[in-house]
Amino acid sequence: MQTMLQQQLRGTGVALVTPFSANGAIDWNALEKLIDHVINGGVNYVVTLGTTGETPTLSSEEKLDLIKFTFEKVNKRVPVVVGIGDYNTQDVVKRLQSCPLDEAAAVLSVAPYYSKPSQEGIFQHYKAIAAASPKPIILYNVPGRTGRNMTAATTLRIANEVPNVIAMKEASGDMVQCMEIVRSKPKDFPGDLRRRCRGHAPDCLWDGRCNLRGCQLLCKRFLCDGESRAGKQLRRSPPPALQYARRVRPDVRRKQPGRR
After folding, report:
1. DSSP 3-state assignment of 168?
2. Is residue 241 situated within a structural domain?
3. How far is CA 55 from CA 16, 18, 110, 221, 236, in A?
4. Confidence class of residue 2 from pLDDT cuts 50, 70 and 90?
5. How many Å separate Cα 238 from the centre of its chain?
6. Which of 9, 86, 105, 190 has its CA 20 to 30 A from that of 224?
7. What CATH code is carried by the domain that includes residue 98?
8. Annotated active-site positions, please?
9. Which residues contact 249 (CB under 8 A, 6 or more apart)?
10. What is the Cα–Cα distance from 167 to 108, expressed in whole angstroms?
11. Phi and psi (nearest 5°) for 109?
């Protein structure tokens, strides 16, 4: 079952944005158009309630409505991954058991943020939520947002010791860490090396920019039409130092009190 699911989530996935109307409410018509747009553009699966969808600004009711709406409008055309994560382990466990996840392929769960747990704490967090989850778990390491990096050693420990964890979204931007995970991971543990590591994993590509017109097919070609061969060479012989250019782009977000 795990191998079949991992094949379903192979290729290009897109984390859906959450469109808002001028009064701050979710724009359901725009979201429906967006879902059709990315699926018609050729993505292999979609993610709802990711950070790209501005989940921290959504109410509990809005999150439930988004899950149900996404399932309805996707209508099983592609797999759907649902984002459920928090620094409160017990709260994540409760949400995993109460959210409507029957049609979800997997759950994307971000590493605990703000509280900066130890690596052992991160391991125990994922061990607990994986045991409680009715769906397979995808790890999400994004230290630029959480304030704590999940090291390669912790990732590999989870991959080897926690059965219900099937994949990872790695967004640390640390190529050495990424390559260590790719070289040492179990054979049945795919990786998604996002952003600065994009294109160097043979399994999948995950990028919020696939919401944009024309990006879906481009991303798929970038991954499938030979870039993975370059990735294999890089894994065999990574360079001693890597430099990255940080791209700054404007974002349209839901306005919060005090934000300008």
Report:
1. strand
2. no
3. 11, 9, 12, 29, 38
4. low
5. 25
6. 105
7. 3.20.20.70
8. 140, 169
9. none
10. 9
11. -130, 115
Q: How far is CA 76 from CA 52, 67, 104, 170, 246, in A?
A: 22, 13, 10, 26, 36
What's the CA gap between 216 and 258, in Å, rounded?
Answer: 35
Are 106 and 85 contacting, i.e. CB atoms less than 8 angstroms apart?
no
The confidence score (pLDDT) of residue 209 equals: 46
Residue 70 lies in a domain: yes
Query: pLDDT (tens digit, 9 = 90+) per residue, 189-237?
Result: 765 444 333 333 334 444 444 444 444 443 444 344 444 454 444 445 5
Tens of pLDDT along 236-245?
554 443 333 2
Evaluated on CA atoms 144, 150, 155, 161, the torsion sign reads negative
The residue written with tokens 């543990």 in the block is: 189
Structural domain containing residue 99: 2-236
The pLDDT score that the predictor gives to residue 18 is 95
Q: Which of 37-41, 92-96, 143-147, 193-197 has the lowest mean pLDDT?
A: 193-197
The answer as to whether 130 is a domain residue is yes
